[in-house]
Amino acid sequence: MAQLRIALAQTNPVVGDLAGNADKLIAWTRRAADGGAHLVVFTEMFLTGYPVEDLVLRTSFVDASIAGLDAAAARLAAEGLGDLPVVVGYVDRANRTHRIGQPKGAPLDAAAVLYQGRVVARTAKHHLPNYGVFDEYRYFVRGDRLPVFRLHGVDVAVAICEDLWQEGGPVSAARAAGAGLLVVPNASPYEMDKDDVRFALCARRAGEAGCALAYANQVGGQDELIFDGDSLVVSVDGELVARAGQFTEELLITNLELPLGSGEPGEFPVDALDGTTITVERVVLSAEPLAAYPAEPPVVAERLDDTAEVYQALVLGVRDYVAKNGFQSVILGLSGGIDSALTATIAADAIGPDRVHVVLMPSRYSSDHSVGDAEELVRRQGLRSRVAPIADIVNAFEKEIELTGLAAENLQARVRGMLLMSLSNQHGHLVLTTGNKSELATGYSTLYGDSAGGFAPIKDVPKSLVWELSRWRNTQSTPPPIPENSITKEPSAELRPGQRDTDSLPEYAVLDRLLDDYVEQDRGRAELIAAGHDPELVTRVIRLVDTAEYKRRQYPPGPKISPKNFGRDRRLPITNRWREG
Ligand SMILES: Nc1ncnc2c1ncn2[C@@H]1O[C@H](COP(=O)(O)OP(=O)(O)OC[C@H]2O[C@@H]([n+]3cccc(C(=O)O)c3)[C@H](O)[C@@H]2O)[C@@H](O)[C@H]1O
Ligand SMILES: Nc1ncnc2c1ncn2[C@@H]1O[C@H](COP(=O)(O)OP(=O)(O)OP(=O)(O)O)[C@@H](O)[C@H]1O
Ligand SMILES: NC(=O)CC[C@H](N)C(=O)O
């Protein structure tokens, strides 16, 4: 057996910022070196950020990634870090350095081993995810080799993210190659409960690979995706050895006791048990095991509970969208209702209350408590607020053009949207849109009104969860940041006297259960009724959901927390005559 101290760099790259990500690679490698690590593993496509979407279709981008990798290898050596091997993800091109049986020049979701100023091994993701938020057959061709590098006597293999999620492939090849450790760079987006799935997956694959497994995941927000980190190390028996925190950057350093490798350097094909052949490529960096050294106990970070986890995901999603898009501040309409209250609270936790601007915009139908509750929230959290009554603007508009019924109601929401966008233009604030997933599902928002804005923090949060998150957040600090009345009052859009959400929608508890079955589970009408939903309600809600597709397409992006968000996860035609019969 031999000892190896590995460092998993759970960091937050920025898509397209190749120079900034390279700086981060150097800085975190230095930290790993200072921590006495013998190997440092960065995440999938760390140099370019992930996902880069159609950027990979540009030759200039792929060229920059390849050049950036070579430059990073040279820079590590120039800065005295060349003896610490670095595994890092980037974008490469097929057939550039080796044959992989694919058309020349197609992009690869690649990873490389950097050592002593050079790229000493390369690989590319073999299994390309093409479901949910992933479109990787659009972008990449699959890799068909497994690098195994000997480090202080231990054979270390490299597989990439989805390679763990499918049977066979690099995991089987790692077993065939007799690897002593499988390291896996990942960019695995957050979904509720996914941490448990990942741990079980890593434990199982370690057994299949016949070796310990080190899983390094990205952290941070990227448009609608949130990466939660939660990097981990499992033993060959599937026992948890070490685990990093969730939603936080962290260098996870772990001492491992691993078997010594045997076998000669060179290439050989193995049956990957998924109908393909993978070429194992062995290289030797250092054959001699290290002399024994004292090993500190491994770090196992505590898990957040389910509600805390979702809340932290939303906070990180907002923080990174704001920061990575160069905003200093956000603005939103604060109505005294729970959706805007929770959105403001998440924003304050993400970027600080002094950078959260709220506008109270009472209309002639606003209740007294709507202003009172909004003012109380502002006071408790120290937000920047202003009051802009909309009655005169609405009156002026109605003098010019006669509007009645829904058209008149929607005008109020539109005037508010216009005021927020005007203040955004004037002061550079990012407008936060406050709609929740139940509203998005049913089209319960006004186009160019309360659906206007740049980022929608709770768009993937059903109304029932909006209340749960608000109650949970109120237990976390004193005074509770959200006035109790905003949580307990009956939801109302206040667009006409005495209006209640339940005039147009069923109770949210009933609605959310049905939406979960229809939207998340994709159940048809007959299945929904068989599952116990009221047939009349099923007909009504399905119709609302189906005919609101055009509205959702125009809605701003927002953080995904569910297995199926409105966005990349669920793509339906707008022009669509299919109805669940
Ligand atoms: N297929 C399609 N493709 C593209 N555009 C399409 C379209 N179908 C209609 N449209 C357009 O959409 C318009 C209708 O949409 P829109 O103007 O939004 O209006 P609409 O959906 O008719 O009404 C808004 C609903 O949201 C509720 N609301 C509003 C504001 C806040 C809240 C709240 O919860 O706080 C609730 C309100 O009570 C009402 O039930 C049509 O006049 C048409 O211009
Ligand atoms: N009086 C108001 N002042 C400022 N903004 C408002 C006002 N009324 C509505 N808005 C904006 O329009 C959005 C939609 O209104 P809506 O009433 O649905 O949301 P809410 O009040 O936050 O929550 P709820 O639906 O639980 O009442 C609000 O979240 C808020 O951003
Ligand atoms: N980047 C990837 O290959 C991610 C795919 C994988 N199924 C995950 O969600 O973790």
TrEMBL record:
CN hydrolase domain boundaries: 4-258
Biochemical pathway: Cofactor biosynthesis; NAD(+) biosynthesis; NAD(+) from deamido-NAD(+) (L-Gln route): step 1/1
Record-level Gene Ontology MF annotations: ATP binding; glutaminase activity; NAD+ synthase (glutamine-hydrolyzing) activity; NAD+ synthase activity; nitrilase activity
GO biological-process terms attached to the record: NAD+ biosynthetic process
Residues reported in the UniProt entry to bind deamido-NAD(+): 410, 439, 551
Active site residues according to the UniProt entry: 44 (proton acceptor), 44 (proton acceptor), 125 (for glutaminase activity), 161 (nucleophile)
Binding of ATP, residues: 333-340, 434
A Pfam family of this chain: CN_hydrolase
Enzyme Commission number(s) of this protein: 6.3.5.1
Binding-site list for L-glutamine: 131, 188, 194
Catalytic reaction equation(s): deamido-NAD(+) + L-glutamine + ATP + H2O = L-glutamate + AMP + diphosphate + NAD(+) + H(+)
Record's GO cellular component terms: cytoplasm
Keyword NAD: yes
Sequence segments annotated as region (Disordered): 474-503, 553-581
Listed PROSITE patterns: CN_HYDROLASE (PS50263), NITRIL_CHT_1 (PS00920)
Key words of the record: ATP-binding, Ligase, NAD, Nucleotide-binding
Protein origin, superkingdom: Bacteria
Compositionally biased spans, kind Basic and acidic residues: 491-503, 566-581
Function: Catalyzes the ATP-dependent amidation of deamido-NAD to form NAD. Uses L-glutamine as a nitrogen source.
Membership in a protein family: Belongs to the NAD synthetase family. In the C-terminal section; belongs to the NAD synthetase family.
Protein name: Glutamine-dependent NAD(+) synthetase
Native source species: Acrocarpospora corrugata
